[in-house]
Specification:
Layout: E1 2-7, E2 9-11, E3 17-18, E4 25-26, E5 32-34, H1 36-51, E6 58-64, H2 70-79, E7 83-87, H3 97-111, E8 117-121, H4 132-140, E9 144-154, E10 157-164, E11 167-174, E12 177-181, H5 194-200, E13 205-208
Parallel strand pairs: 1-6, 1-8, 6-7, 7-13, 8-12, 9-12
Antiparallel strand pairs: 2-5, 3-4, 9-10, 10-11
Helix pairs in contact: 2-5, 3-4
C-alpha cells in the first residue's frame, strides 16, 4: 500500500511580517517549518503503518517549493517517511491553487501512479486557502474527505472520523482516496531517534523540475 503525504514548508508564524505595500508575507530571512497540519497528516500515515503491521505500507512525501524545502522533506524522512519528491523549478514560483494542484497531479501520475491514499493538511498557515486538497482530488478523479482526525484501513476501503459543526462523523469510501487532516493523531510530540536521523540520509529524495513532467509551462 502506498500512502502519499503532501507537505508544505511555511514561514515560522511568530517571526513573519507583512509587507505594508503589497500585503504579502515577507519570507526572506524567516526560518521555515513544516506546515503543522501537513505534519499531522504525516503522523497519521505513520500511525496507520504501525496499526497495520500485516499490510506493507510505503509512505511517500511530496512537496512543491524552493530548493531549501529539502530541509522539510529531510525532516519527514527522519520522522518515518520512506521516500520524498520535491517539485522545484523557477516556473513553479508564485503558483496559485490551480497551478499547484495541476503540478502535484502530474507528478503523482508520472511517478506514483499506483498510490492508494493521499493525506494532506487541511490548510497551510501562510496562504490559509484550504483549497489545494480539493483541487488535487478533483484533478485525480478520486473521493475526497475533509477535516479528518483519524483513518482506519479496511481492505479496499477506509473509514474516516471527521469533524463537523455538531461533533464528529464517520464516513467510509473506497480507495484510492484523499483525506485532509485537521488534528494530530497523537497526544504527544514524536522525535526521531539517532538511528532515524542517520537512516534518513540514505533514503531517496528526488528533485523534480518542470522538464520532468508532462505539463505545458504556459499553464503554470
Amino acid at each position: 500500500m502506498k500512502i502519499i503525504v503532501s507537505i508544505k514548508q511555511v514561514p515560522e508564524a511568530e517571526k513573519v511580517e507583512v509587507n505594508p505595500d503589497t500585503g504579502t508575507l515577507i519570507r526572506e530571512g524567516v526560518e521555515s517549518i513544516i506546515n503543522p497540519f501537513c505534519e499531522y497528516a504525516l503522523e497519521l500515515a505513520i500511525k496507520l503503518r504501525k496499526n497495520n503491521p500485516y499490510i506493507p505500507i510505503e509512505i511517500i512525501v511530496i512537496s512543491m517549493g524552493p530548493p531549501q524545502a529539502k530541509r522539510a522533506l529531510l525532516r519527514c524522512l527522519e520522522l518515518g517517511a520512506d521516500k520524498a519528491f520535491l517539485l522545484s523549478d523557477r516556473c513553479f514560483a508564485g503558483s496559485d491553487v490551480w497551478a499547484t494542484a495541476l503540478t502535484l497531479k502530474e507528478c503523482i501520475h508520472k511517478f506514483i501512479p499506483d498510490f492508494d491514499l493521499i493525506l494532506c493538511g487541511k490548510q497551510a498557515i501562510d496562504g490559509d486557502t484550504a483549497q489545494v486538497p480539493a483541487e488535487l482530488a478533483e484533478n485525480l478523479g478520486i473521493p475526497q474527505i475533509f477535516y479528518g482526525v483519524d483513518v482506519n484501513i479496511e481492505k479496499k476501503k477506509i473509514r474516516v472520523k471527521k469533524e463537523n459543526v455538531n461533533g464528529f462523523q464517520i464516513i467510509e469510501t473506497r480507495l484510492p482516496a484523499l483525506v485532509s487532516i485537521s488534528k494530530s493523531p497523537f497526544n504527544f510530540c514524536r522525535f526521531p531517534s539517532m538511528r532515524d536521523l542517520i537512516d534518513a540520509r540514505k533514503k531517496p529524495l528526488r528533485i523534480i523540475t518542470a522538464n520532468n513532467l508532462d505539463i505545458e509551462k504556459d499553464k503554470l
